[in-house]
């Protein structure tokens, strides 16, 4: 009733935007955008925090170092890669075509393509980014694929398959070399599927 | 006999270093180094001239714009590619293995690898560089290869072959993904040669 100061209860109120998964997601989204637009070198924790509208300390709290933020950010970019084990689960028949079709589909879609391109650019221009990509891609994707393959040297085989698809992505979407850049995706799949099939299933 | 000023004869003397092919070569060497070390964006005609020890006007005189200097510089980097028509001249039998072996050889050698990596990095990070690479690679290499192929859509087939080898280069030498990075080159050639053979010779 009189002009008493309000009593403090417990810890100071936090802004709702600074807590919980939505802050983590905002940081990840901001990180992906920053890395994509500025490149690995010019991206900083401070820049990511500013883009996310949070304190830099929160970025450190949730993710750690710049490399750890990068690893988390590319993990999201590689979400489409999480589908790959499901594609393998269909068994060896036709796996070459299923994988070729899926990979091309991811790259044909500008929404899923852009973060992958950004990751590849970073890896090509900064050794720390290449190291993160190597560890991530190997551990999360290629070795997982290799588990399901019944061939000698399965990780080597998976890498040969991945290298072919990566190279197609580079010539088609980055260099934009014709006629590959404008080719119907079915033409590419038709040519490449038997290659992947051999690498992934033939001893 | 007396203190007469020496008579001028004709045009002022030029420094020997500013004339003839050796100046052109110095400019090309400097351009390759500048592009490789600074990247496409941060390289300038002035910077190239300084590194070559010549006047910027001489760079313009011999080569033209920055893009034209870049095109000339990467042409030299792709000198190994000039061997490819000779490899094709051996006829279709075993062409897959010859090309796989040659490509791997160029990338295994750090001297020939470094400028190629620099070109790819430039193309990935600067659209103008991608455009130069696209024009150059297509016109000078892939279409030349396609002339010697007896398959439908020969340029498309040549690009598929090139994409596979580029992807291997990326995973082995840039990302350094194991076991591909440490694999014996004969293992890679053995797996990949039949792929290139099919792309380049089978209708």
TrEMBL record, chains A, B:
It comes from the Bacteria. Residues 21-81 form the HTH tetR-type domain. Residues 1-14 have a biased composition (Basic residues). Pfam families: TetR_C_16 (PF17920), TetR_N (PF00440). Residues 44-63 bind DNA. PANTHER family: HTH-TYPE TRANSCRIPTIONAL REGULATOR RUTR (PTHR30055), TRANSCRIPTIONAL REGULATORY PROTEIN (PTHR30055:SF235). This is TetR family transcriptional regulator.
């Amino acid at each position: 009733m009189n002009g008493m100061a309000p009593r403090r209860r417990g810890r100071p109120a936090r802004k709702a935007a600074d807590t919980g998964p939505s802050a983590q997601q905002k940081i990840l989204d901001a990180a992906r955008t920053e890395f994509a637009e500025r490149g690995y070198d010019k991206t900083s924790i401070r820049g990511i925090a500013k883009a996310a509208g949070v304190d830099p300390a929160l970025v450190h709290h949730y993710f750690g170092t710049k490399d750890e933020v990068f690893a988390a950010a590319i993990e999201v970019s590689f979400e489409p890669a999480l589908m790959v084990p499901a594609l393998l689960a269909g068994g060896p028949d036709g796996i070459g075509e299923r994988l070729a079709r899926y990979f091309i589909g991811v790259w044909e879609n500008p929404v899923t393509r852009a973060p992958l391109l950004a990751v590849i650019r970073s890896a090509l221009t900064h050794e720390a980014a290449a190291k993160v990509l190597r560890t991530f891609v190997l551990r999360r994707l290629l070795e997982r694929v290799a588990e399901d393959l019944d061939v000698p040297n399965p990780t080597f085989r998976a890498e040969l398959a991945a290298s072919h698809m990566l190279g197609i992505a580079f010539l088609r979407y980055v260099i934009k070399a014709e006629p590959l850049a404008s080719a119907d995706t079915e033409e590419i799949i038709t040519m490449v599927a038997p290659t992947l099939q051999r690498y992934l299933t033939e001893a």
